[in-house]
Amino acid sequence: MRIAICEEDKKELSHLLRLIKEYQLSRGTGIDCRWFPNATDFLCDKKAGDYDLVLLDRVMQGISGLQAAKELRERDKNVRIVFLALAGEAAEENEEAGIYGRLSKPVKADSLFLLLHRAEEEHLAQERQGFVLKSRDGISRISFSGLAYAEVINKTVFFHLKDGEILEATASLGDFEEKLLLRPEFLKPHRSYLVNLHYVQAVSSKGVLMKNGDNIPVSRKRFGQVRDAYMGFGVSPETAAPSGKPERAGGPWQILLVDDDPAALAFWADVLKSHGCVVIKAGSGEEALKLAAENSCDCALLDVMIPGENGFSLCERLHRLQDIPVIFLSSLTEPDKQVEGFAAGGIDYITKDTTAELFWVKVEARIRLAISQRTQLSFGPLLLDLTGRKVWIDGRELFLTSMEFDILWCLSEHGGRIFSPEEIFGMFWGGRPWDGGQTVQVEMSRLRRKLEKAWGEHRFIETVWGKGYRFMPAGH
Questions:
Q1: Contact 433, 422 (CB under 8 A)
Q2: What is the pLDDT of residues 73-119, one digit of tens each?
Q3: Cα–Cα distance, 118 to 140 (Å, whole number)
């Protein structure tokens, strides 16, 4: 994370630099920090628009902090700006300048550390969801899900966004290839183009037809690769996660929340729902395990002191059902309890005195990190190796075709959701005319027979009469 400090008071500046150094040492995190004695020097610096967080002295000689904030906001609408102000100074301009936060001078360590942690978690989450572009119109953040395609013409890269907006940058396409092609939804049909499969309508020898009507050329050498990538792509454009919203391919994040205190359960559920999540509530460990077996979740939040077994042992049992991040949410603040939580397999430990805002930042960052690093999906005896594209049942490999694997992956990742034959056909055979469901029926029958032969105790794929198909984890 890149930080700039613009502070006129040398003593306060020295104090801030020392605190940031302490934060880095305590967290083992990397921060690129630069400082400036006044706003003029800061705004004249060629990197003034390159920072993720800017700490601005509110009252300075010459250009004030408020004026600097407004100019900086014009250059970069996403930058986080924090005012450094004396306790009695007014704060009514904060909204006008788009202020991210405010710290009272002299700045206290706990206040600064909390702000840095929040900004750092948000920055990491944003890095996983998009990239920063220095366009001709200023600095913009482009989400991967919001980029339809990019093309280069005469040393200028044009970024075509899903809403029709086009951003231009003087660069080469190679400057963005590595970042984009690491993601499964992007491919390169031609040396001058990068395309997001979420926004592809059809692929033919004539080119890649985008949903907005644009036609992207395909080189002869790459046609087979592009066609196969499109046909095997398992997520439809309608289910792509919109920028800034906590969604996975199958819709909003589903979070299992376990707490025996009804008031606490309701409070934290409301916080999660306010951010667009679907909350599955449980008041005991037994109920939590039952719900985990019936639903595909993106995260579990566990209270430590619950009826029956405690949250630590429940964490281990949940991991056997689903490979999801588990976060402890407890009123127990003792360090030894937190250590025990991490030892039990928790990815984080949040105390209940944490603010709702910081709570959400932590949960969101942990889920995004887990999704970006996910290599396996586990449902009792069934294990999907997403990297090796292999399936195992009860320790024995189940041999599936590439199409069967993709269908199973899609359905299992969205457990409980019913997919109609038309939806499945559109996701996997979208370039062909609809055949009334015959192709889907044949493919699903083959897949179901293989699963049932390998594990006769449970039907992982269920036919819902008149509606379609859904994945049911073992134990339902």
A1: no
A2: 777 777 788 888 886 665 555 445 567 778 888 888 888 887 888 78
A3: 21
- Helix 285-294 with 311-321: angle, nearest 10 deg: 20
| Residue 242, pLDDT above cutoff 80 | no
* Cα 275 to Cα 286: distance, rounded to the nearest angstrom: 27
Pairing of β 53-57 and β 80-86: parallel
Residues 327 and 301 sit within 8 Å (Cβ to Cβ): yes
- Which pairing describes strands 166-170 and 156-161: parallel, antiparallel, or unpaired? antiparallel
The span from the CA of 321 to the CA of 290, in Å, is 10
Single-letter residue type at 42: F
135 is written with which tokens?
A: 């366009």
Please give the structure tokens belonging to residue 336.
Answer: 């030894």
45-84 residue pLDDT tens:
756 557 888 898 888 888 888 888 888 877 777 778 888 8
d(CA 19, CA 280): 40
For residue 72, the tally of other CB atoms under 10 A from its CB is 25
Cα distance between residue 140 and residue 32, in whole Å: 20
What lies within 8 Å, CB to CB, of 469 at 6+ separation is: 411, 418, 419, 421, 424, 444, 461, 462, 463
- Distance CA(298)–CA(369), nearest Å, equals 11
Positive or negative: CA dihedral 186, 189, 195, 200: negative
For every residue of the chain, which 3-state class applies, written as one string? CEEEEECCCHHHHHHHHHHHHHHHHHHCCCCEEEEECCHHHHHHCCCCCCCCEEEEECCCCCCCHHHHHHHHHHHECCCEEEEEEECCCCCCCHHHHCCCEEEEECCCHHHHHHHHHHHHHHHHHHHHHEEEEEECCEEEEEEHHHEEEEEEECCEEEEEECCCCEEEEECCCHHHHHHHHCCCCEEEEECCEEEEHHHEEEEECCEEEECCCCEECCCHHHHHHHHHHHHCCCCCHHHCCCCCCCEECCEECEEEEECCCHHHHHHHHHHHHHCCCEEEEECCHHHHHHHHHHCCCCEEEECCCCCCCCHHHHHHHHHHHCCCCEEEEECCCCHHHHHHHHHCCCCEEEECCCCHHHHHHHHHHHHHHHHHHCCEEEECCEEEECCCCEEEECCEEECCCHHHHHHHHHHHHCCCCCECHHHHHHHHCCCCCCCCCHHHHHHHHHHHHHHHHHCCCCCCEEEECCCEEEECCCCC
177 HSE (CA, 13 A, CB side): 12
User: What's the one-letter identity of residue 386?
Assistant: L
Q: In this predicted model, what pLDDT tens digit does every residue of 150-201 receive, in sequence order?
A: 999 988 999 999 888 899 988 888 888 877 887 778 888 988 999 998 888 8
